[in-house]
Amino acid sequence: MRLCLETATEQFQECAEYEDQGYEACDRWEDQGYEACDDWDDRCCDWWPCSWGCKLISWVCVGWVWVSNMVCVAWVWVSNLVCVAWTVITTTVCLVWALVEIILLPIAWLVELVQSIPVIGRIIDMLGNLIVTIVKRIIDLPTAVLDLIGIRPLKRMELCVIILRDEEGNPVSDQPTLQPFLDETVATFRREANVHVHVSGIHTVAAPSPTYALDVNCDGAAVLEDLWLTGSYFQRAALFNCSLGSTSRIGPVRPQIVVFAVRDIPGTTAGCALGPLTDYLTVEGRNPVCIPHEVGHKVGLWHCCDGTNLANPTCGGIRLRSWQVAIARNSKYISWI
Question: Which stretches are transmembrane (predicted)?
Answer without folding.
Answer: 56-78, 84-111
